[in-house]
Structure formats: C-alpha cells, structure tokens
C-alpha cells in the first residue's frame, strides 16, 4: 500500500540548509509546556542532522491560530526547550516566511538551528497555497519531513514544499511507516485488533478496514456497548452511540465475508457513577441494570481476550477497553496492556488514550511500536493515501 520512503539518512546535508518539518505541537499551559514529549521525540532527528553538518531550518505548527498571528501560540517555549535538549542556541525566527527570515536562514553555519515561528500564522499554510509553499522552499535546499502526525493533511509545509525541494522522510516518519506497513501489509498471523474507546463514529473507517484484514476483532469500551445495543442487549445507562446501526451492520458483514471473528465482552464491570470509591458489580455485558453503566470489560472477558492475544503474531491496539482513567474501571485495559507487553506478537499501539494506558501500565517500552500519529495513524490504518507521504519520493527513486 505504501512503499518505503527515501530516508533522510541518505541525504547529503553538509553545508546545506535543510527544511525540517517536525511535530512540535505541544500542549501549553499558559506560558509553560505542559508535556514536552513531542519536543524530546524530535531532538534526536535534529541532533543527527546537525552532527552531519546540516544547517537546520525547523518548522512546526502549534495549536489552531487559523491563519492569524496569535502570540499565545508562539513557538518561543519550544525554541527554549530545544536549546536545552540540543545543547546549542536555537533561535526563533520572527515569522515562517519573508525576506528577513530568508536572510536569517542564509546566515546559518553548519550545525546551526533556526526555528521558524508557527507555520499556521499564515492562511497559505493550511490552504497549501503555491506561492506560500514557494516562500517556504526559498528558505532551504533540501526537505525532511519528520512530522507523521500531519501526514494526513495537504498543507504547504507537508506537501507543497516537498514537491519543490529534494525530499526525504525523517527517522520518526520512517519508523511509523515501517511499523504500520508491517502490521497491515502481509502481517504474521493470527492478526488481531483490539479496539475500544468511546465512540464508533470516531473509528468507522478503521473498524471497517480492519474487519477485512484481521483474524479477530476484540471490542471493548463504548464501541462494544454500541455493538451489543444494536444486537438487542440491555445496556442500562452505558455509553451507547445512537444512529450507528448501519455502521455496525457493515462492520459485521465485512467481518463475516472475510472470516474475521468479532469478540464482544461476556461480562462487564458496572456502576451507577464514574466514582473511584463507589460500589461496582460484574454482570453479563448485555444485561446491564437500568440504573447502571458498563464501564470496563469484566474478568471473564479479560481472560477470553488474553487467550486470543496469547496466540496472536500481530496486534493493532487502539482505544482503551474501559474508563481506564478511573481505577475501578482500569483493570481490563491494564490487563490487556500487560498481556501485549509479554506476548510474542508484533504490537502496534495507536491512539492517545491507548498510549496513555500503556504508559500507565508501565509497559509502553515493551510494545513493538507506539504510533503517535493520532488522526494520521487512523487514516493509514483505514488504508487511505496520506498526502504527506505521497509527496515524499520512494526509497529507490
Ligand atoms: P484513543 O485515544 O486510544 O483512540 P478514544 O479517544 O477513542 O481512544 O477513547 C478514549 C475514551 O474512551 C476514554 O476517555 C475512556 O474513558 C472512554 N471509554 C472507554 N470505555 C468506556 C465506557 N465503557 N464508557 C464510557 N467511556 C469509555
Ligand atoms: Mg483519545
């Protein structure tokens, strides 16, 4: 589906200005970076390009300024954090395009790093405006895209500029493509998907696609509730998404046609409220009392899922199986995370909450691949072409 892309490791960068598109879209709390995971993730990419003599022009978006300058969404804090991580001065340019920024870029020496201001301060970025892409391209001689999380967007910095300069995928991008490709193209079997989370409507494309690819689909969370409600189950006050009958039927039909088993939880942990100190009971998952909510898969369901996962050779996991943020309802999700960490399967964990759950279980570093692409990861799993990938040349090109 997606050929391996030319790697930035094969690019000659010494003495050349390299436009590096990164994902430094960190959550801010006022003036502070609340979580610097994304900045730490890109630091090795930049350190490697510096060590090889590149002159780095680094670009990212931050938040949703909608094409206008918004000082609260400046990349100034990111420049400071990058300076600390790289052990060199990372200057922040006053803008992402224009003569003054071009002059700054031309003055860079080998190993220097200039961070452009928030790309989305210009409407031309999200519109992939050709003249805006040309303005970005004037800043550099080669292009590296290491922002997999924006690969599903055709923006000036992800597509436009990639077509104007010799281009390559950075190491984070490369790792994402390789792992997602390995999981979905001719995977070792049994291939099992674990899908949970809140809403069916967030996951329609992934559900439909994986139902045609995997040997078993293990469902949990609000997703499973919605499947069971559509089969006539009593779900009480559980999270059930209305209007999904057609999607559920389509997923069931796709699964039946390709010999994929759909497993729903046999039992559920129920309560009247999401309360860490409230009473909980275990009931058959399709017989939830009227005043209760199914908030986690039960012990029998957990055992059954772990048995299937123990046989698996490839697993894609997206979405927690219960309200894992609240301890009494985290057991199913944590047990599955531990089961995946110790299994022989190649495991891809995708989705912000599934990643957070793997971290909470203390097993994130034992998974085959942690996909941080969010919407881009889901679109890849849906089998869609991502414009940011399409714009990069294949490895042999
Ligand atoms: P991911 O980020 O991994 O894609 P989602 O964002 O789709 O996952 O879903 C995560 C949310 O789903 C969590 O906030 C969790 O509390 C919620 N959730 C999971 N199971 C249930 C449930 N049974 N009832 C209500 N909410 C649930
Ligand atoms: Mg989420």
Characteristic key phrases:
397 residues, alpha/beta, six-stranded parallel sheet, 15 helices, 36% helix, elongated, binds adenosine-5'-diphosphate, binds magnesium ion
Helical fraction: 25-40%
Output the structural class: alpha/beta
Strand order of the largest sheet: 5-6-4-1-7-8
Distance between the termini: 17 Å
DSSP strand (E) fraction?
15-25%
- Broad shape: elongated
Number of helical stretches of at least 4 residues: 15
Output mean pLDDT.
96
Return residue spans where pLDDT drops below 50 for at least 5 consecutive residues: none
Quick one: biggest sheet?
A: 6 strands, parallel
Supply Rg: 23 Å
Cofactors and ligands present? adenosine-5'-diphosphate, magnesium ion
The total beta strand count reads 17
Compact overview of the structure:
With 397 residues, this protein is an alpha/beta fold. The protein is 36% helix and 17% strand.
Would you kindly provide a written description of the structure presented here, covering whatever features stand out?
With 397 residues, the chain is an alpha/beta fold. It has 15 helices and 17 strands. Strands 5-6-4-1-7-8 form a 6-stranded parallel sheet, sandwiched between helices. Strands 11-10-9-15-16-17 form a 6-stranded parallel sheet, sandwiched between helices. Strand 5 (90-92), helix 3 and strand 6 (113-115) form a beta-alpha-beta unit. The chain is elongated, with a radius of gyration of 23 Å. The two termini are 17 Å apart. The protein binds adenosine-5'-diphosphate (ADP) and magnesium ion. Magnesium ion (MG) binds at residues 351-353.
